[in-house]
Amino acid sequence: MTATRDTVIALVLVSFGAFVVWEASRMPRFEHLTVNPYTVPGLVPAFLGASLVVFGLVMLARAALAHRRTPQTAAEAEREPAPTHSRHASHSRHASSRRLALTLVLTLGYAAGLVGRVPFWLATMVFVLAFILAFDGPGARAGRRVPRLIVTASLQAAVVAVAVTLVFERLFLVRLP
Q1: Are 105 and 99 in contact (CB under 8 A)?
Q2: Integer Cα distance of 148 and 140 in angstroms
Q3: Which of 66, 127, 153, 161 could form a disulfide with 3 if both were Cys (CB 3.0 to 4.6 A apart)?
Q4: Could you tell me if residue 70 is left (phi over 0), alpha (psi between -120 and 50 degrees) or otherwise beta?
Q5: Are 50 and 22 spatial neighbours (Cβ–Cβ below 8 Å)?
Q6: Is the CB of residue 47 less than 8 Å from the CB of residue 25?
Q7: 0.90 exceeded by the pTM?
Q8: Which letter does DSSP use for residue 26 in this model?
Q9: 59: Cβ–Cβ under 8 A, 6 or more apart, which residues?
Q10: How far apart are the C-alpha atoms of 128 and 159, rounded to whole Å?
Q11: How far apart, in whole angstroms, are the C-alpha atoms of residue 164 and residue 172?
């Protein structure tokens, strides 16, 4: 069932990404104004659309491989162990839902709470740091590696914040809030 669901999602991603690339290619390029080609309006949407196509194709390939590994006949299906619906499966679904909710809270907090209220680089650094600590923190606490996690997460957040800010301001010439 998961492979079928992945196939559908992959096809939606590829289709949507191709649509975004198509629409981005139709945006004005302002050649008559001798505008820097890195600043044309459709560049970033085209890149994001192409990324959706590539990752959708990767997901489609993985789903196809998963389809190939599933039993083809009833006899093979009988030899396969029956799936167990244990407490582990329900715990896994609950944990997945919690991770999704946490991702939504962090992302909305970044977009609605930080961006525009503090400098962009600081908002991005806080968001990346919070995201890393939220998702890697439980494993670090279990292994008692919290100080190391805080240092490495802070460095990663700083590098990402500087890189994103510089790419948008210097390469794409976008003024950030």
Answers
A1: no
A2: 9
A3: 66
A4: beta
A5: no
A6: no
A7: no
A8: T
A9: 6, 9, 10, 13
A10: 10
A11: 11
User: If DSSP codes are grouped into helix, strand and coil, which group holds residue 158?
Assistant: helix
pLDDT tens sequence across 45-102:
999 999 999 999 999 999 998 877 765 544 555 555 555 555 555 666 777 888 889 9
Torsion of CA 139, 143, 144, 148, to 10 degrees: -70
Give the Cα separation of 42 and 57 in Å (integer). 22
Using an 8 Å Cβ cutoff, are 17 and 58 in contact?
no
What amino acid occupies position 18?
A
Tell me the residue length of the chain: 177
* Burial 90-116, CB ≥16 within 10 A → b, else e: eeeeeeeeeeeeeeeebeeebeeebbe
Gyration radius of the chain's alpha carbons: 22
Q: Answer whether residue 9 shows pLDDT above 60.
A: yes
Q: Is 1 helix (H, G, I), strand (E, B) or coil?
A: coil
C-alpha 153/C-alpha 115 separation (Å) is 20
